[in-house]
C-alpha cells in the first residue's frame, strides 16, 4: 500500500484564484496603501493614467504606487528562508512583523492582474530593480506561474515604487474623483479611526485619477463630529459619542486573548453627511487594523428590536483577532475569537440602548418624523389641489381658445367645434334632434366599451333597417385602430384630418376614399364599402 503521498498544489491555479478574489479593481488601492503603511511610510502617491496600446486605438491603464517607507531587501532571512523582495512576488509568504495589516501574503497578488509588474525599492543603501519576465495575467490563465528577475546595485534612496503595465480594469474605475476619495476614506487605512485608541501614526496620501493632470491630497483618519446633545433646536445636528472603549472579551480555549476596540455615535441627519451613503454605510461595522471590513446591523436590530435604529448609528468595532478572507472583504465567523468579540459588541450596543441620551434622542426624533410626515402629507394635498386647479384653469383657457361651432339651425349643438369623440357624438345627436337633412338615421344604442360604438336605425326604401356605426373626431383616427373595420357600415367624424385618397390600415389593407356628396364619402376596402359622414362639411353646406 502506498504511504506518505504528498498532495500536489497547482501553483498557477492558486495564484489565479487569489487574484480573482479581488473583484473590485479599486481594491488595488487598499492593498497598496496597506503595504505602504506596513512599511512605515509617511507618504504614498497613487497615480492612474491611460496609455495607447501600440498598433490599436485601445488604451490600457497604467498604475504607479510610490512611498517613502523602508523598502525591500534581497537578503535571505535566517529562519525564514526567503527575502523581502521574494515575499513580494510569492504567494502566501508575508513574514511581516506582528501588528502589520498584511500577514497572509495575498494582497500584492492583485498586481498580477496586469501585463507587467515593475518594482524599484531602496533599502540598506541598495537599489533593487525587479520585474516580471512574462505578462503575469495572461501567463497565469495559461496555467503557468509567471517568472520575474531582479538586479541589485548600490544606491541611496528610500521607499518603493511599483508600476503596473495594463492593469485589468475599466477606465471608469479610476476616473471619478469623488468615488475614489470615498473608497479611500472608508475602506483603506487612510480612513483609520486608530487615533481614538492612542495610535499616533498617520500617512499622507496623494491621488491622481485618470482624468486629472496632477495629484490631490487626501486627509488621513476618520473623525466623528463634535459632540452635541442639545435637542432644543431639533435633532439634525445631534451627536452623542459612546466610547472609545477597550473591551476584554476573554480567552479562547487555546489561550488567545481577544480584545475589541469600539467607538460609536448617535448622529442626527446633518451629521450623517460624513458617510457617502446613509443606507449603505450607517450602522455597525466590524473592523480590523482600524479599517472597516463588513457591516453587521443585525446586532443593532436584535438589541434595539427594529430595523429603523441603525440609520442613526455609526459604530466601529475593531478586533485584531478577527481572521479575514483572502481578499480582506469579509471576516471569518467560524472561529471562537469571532464569537467572543460579537458577544462583547452586543453588550456595548446594549449599553447604548440603555442610555438615557439614546431614549431622549429617539423620542425627539419620532416626534420630528411625525411632524415632518404630517407636513409632507399636507404639502402633497396642497400640491394636488394646486395641480387640479391648474389643470382646470388650463382646460378652461384651452376651451376659450377653441373656435366656435357654426351651426345656427342645430338646436342644442355644442358651443365649440368638437375636439373628441364624445363631443362629436353630442353634435351628432343635436343634428338628429334638430332634424338636420344631412343625417338620415337615428341612434338606437350607444356602447363605447363593446366593439362598434353605435347601432343606428334608418329607412332603406321605406323599410326599417339597422347599421353599425363608429364615431371618430377625425377619419384619420380610424386608420390607427388595431381591430379590423369588418362589420362597420357607417363612420361619423367631425373632419377628415390628414387622410389621403388611398390609406392603409394597421394590418396593411388598403382603403380608397371617394367623395359622394356634401360631407358624404365612401371608404372602399376590397369588396366592402363604408359610408362616411363629415359633420363639418355637412354643416357648411347649410
Blueprint (SSEs and pairs):
Elements: H1 11-20, H2 27-38, E1 43-52, E2 59-67, H3 84-89, E3 116-123, E4 126-132, H4 136-141, E5 148-154, E6 159-167, H5 177-187, E7 204-208, E8 216-218, E9 239-251, E10 257-267, H6 278-281, E11 283-288, E12 291-295, H7 298-304, E13 313-318, H8 336-354, H9 356-401, H10 421-433, E14 441-446, E15 454-460, E16 463-474, E17 490-495, E18 502-504, E19 510-517, E20 520-525, E21 528-534, H11 535-540
Helix pairs in contact: 7-8
Key attributes of the depicted protein:
542 residues, alpha+beta, Heat Shock Protein 90, Ribosomal Protein S5, domain 2, eight-stranded mixed sheet, 11 helices, 21 strands, 26% helix
How would you summarize this macromolecular structure in one to three sentences?
With 542 residues, this protein is of the alpha+beta class. It has three domains: 11-218, Histidine kinase-like ATPase, C-terminal domain (Heat Shock Protein 90, 2-Layer Sandwich), CATH 3.30.565; 239-362, Ribosomal Protein S5, domain 2, CATH 3.30.230; 421-540, no CATH class.
Describe this entry's structure for a reader.
This protein is an alpha+beta fold and 542 residues long. It has three domains: 11-218, Histidine kinase-like ATPase, C-terminal domain (Heat Shock Protein 90, 2-Layer Sandwich); 239-362, Ribosomal Protein S5, domain 2 (2-Layer Sandwich); 421-540, no CATH class. The chain is 26% helix and 28% strand. The chain has helices at residues 11-20, 27-38, 84-89, 136-141, 177-187, 278-281, 298-304, 336-354, 356-401, 421-433, 535-540; strands at 43-52, 59-67, 116-123, 126-132, 148-154, 159-167, 204-208, 216-218, 239-251, 257-267, 283-288, 291-295, 313-318, 441-446, 454-460, 463-474, 490-495, 502-504, 510-517, 520-525, 528-534. Strands 5-4-3-6-2-1-7-8 form an eight-stranded mixed sheet, with helices on one face. A hairpin with a 2-residue loop joins strand 20 (520-525) and strand 21. The protein is elongated. The N and C termini lie far apart (116 Å). The model has no long low-confidence stretch (mean pLDDT 91).
Amino acid at each position: 500500500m502506498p504511504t506518505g503521498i504528498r498532495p500536489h498544489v497547482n501553483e498557477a491555479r492558486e495564484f489565479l484564484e487569489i487574484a480573482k478574489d479581488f473583484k473590485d479593481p479599486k481594491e488595488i488601492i487598499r492593498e497598496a496603501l496597506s503595504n505602504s503603511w506596513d512599511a512605515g511610510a509617511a507618504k504614498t502617491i497613487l497615480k492612474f493614467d491611460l496609455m495607447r496600446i501600440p498598433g490599436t486605438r485601445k488604451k490600457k491603464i497604467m498604475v504607479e504606487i510610490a512611498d517613502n517607507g523602508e523598502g525591500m531587501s534581497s537578503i535571505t532571512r535566517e529562519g525564514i528562508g526567503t527575502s523581502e523582495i521574494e515575499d513580494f512576488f510569492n504567494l502566501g509568504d508575508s513574514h511581516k512583523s506582528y501588528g502589520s495589516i498584511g500577514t497572509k501574503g495575498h494582497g500584492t497578488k492583485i498586481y498580477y492582474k496586469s501585463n507587467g509588474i515593475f518594482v524599484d525599492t531602496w533599502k540598506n543603501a541598495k537599489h533593487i530593480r525587479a520585474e516580471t519576465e512574462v505578462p503575469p495575467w495572461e501567463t497565469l490563465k495559461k496555467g503557468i506561474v509567471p517568472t520575474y528577475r531582479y538586479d541589485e546595485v548600490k544606491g541611496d534612496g528610500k521607499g518603493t515604487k511599483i508600476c503596473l503595465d495594463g492593469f485589468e480594469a475599466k477606465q471608469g474605475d479610476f476616473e471619478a474623483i469623488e468615488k475614489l476619495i470615498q473608497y479611500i476614506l472608508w475602506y483603506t487605512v487612510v480612513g483609520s479611526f486608530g487615533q481614538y485608541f492612542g495610535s499616533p501614526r498617520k500617512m499622507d496620501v496623494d491621488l491622481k485619477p485618470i482624468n486629472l493632470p496632477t495629484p490631490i491630497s487626501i486627509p488621513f483618519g476618520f473623525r466623528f463630529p463634535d459632540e452635541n446633545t442639545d435637542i432644543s433646536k431639533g435633532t439634525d445636528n445631534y451627536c452623542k459619542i459612546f466610547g472609545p472603549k477597550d473591551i476584554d472579551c476573554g480567552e479562547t480555549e487555546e489561550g488567545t486573548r481577544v480584545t475589541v476596540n469600539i467607538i460609536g455615535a448617535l448622529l442626527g441627519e446633518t451629521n450623517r453627511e460624513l458617510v457617502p451613503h446613509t443606507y449603505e454605510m450607517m450602522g455597525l461595522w466590524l473592523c480590523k487594523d482600524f479599517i472597516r471590513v463588513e457591516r453587521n446591523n443585525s446586532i443593532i436590530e436584535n438589541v434595539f428590536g427594529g430595523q429603523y435604529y441603525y440609520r442613526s448609528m455609526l459604530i466601529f468595532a475593531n478586533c485584531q483577532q478577527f481572521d479575514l478572507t483572502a481578499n480582506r472583504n469579509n471576516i471569518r465567523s467560524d472561529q471562537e475569537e469571532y464569537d467572543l468579540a460579537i458577544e462583547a459588541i452586543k453588550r456595548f450596543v446594549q449599553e447604548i440602548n440603555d442610555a438615557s441620551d439614546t431614549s431622549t434622542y429617539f423620542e425627539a426624533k419620532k416626534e420630528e418624523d411625525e411632524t415632518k410626515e404630517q407636513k409632507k402629507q399636507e404639502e402633497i394635498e396642497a400640491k394636488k389641489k394646486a395641480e387640479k386647479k391648474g389643470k382646470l384653469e388650463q382646460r378652461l383657457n384651452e376651451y376659450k381658445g377653441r373656435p366656435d361651432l357654426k351651426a345656427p339651425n342645430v338646436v342644442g349643438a355644442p358651443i365649440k367645434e368638437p375636439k373628441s369623440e364624445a363631443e362629436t357624438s353630442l353634435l351628432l345627436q343635436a343634428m338628429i334632434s334638430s332634424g338636420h337633412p344631412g343625417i338620415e338615421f337615428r341612434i338606437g344604442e350607444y356602447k363605447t366599451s363593446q366593439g362598434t360604438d353605435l347601432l343606428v336605425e334608418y329607412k332603406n326604401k321605406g323599410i326599417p333597417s339597422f347599421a353599425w356605426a363608429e364615431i371618430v373626431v377625425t377619419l384619420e383616427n380610424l386608420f390607427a385602430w388595431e381591430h379590423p373595420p369588418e362589420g362597420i357600415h357607417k363612420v361619423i367624424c367631425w373632419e377628415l384630418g390628414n387622410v389621403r385618397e388611398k390609406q392603409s390600415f394597421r394590418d396593411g389593407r388598403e382603403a380608397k376614399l371617394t367623395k359622394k356628396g356634401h360631407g358624404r364619402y365612401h371608404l372602399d376596402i376590397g369588396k366592402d364599402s363604408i359610408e362616411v359622414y363629415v359633420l363639418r362639411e355637412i354643416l357648411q353646406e347649410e
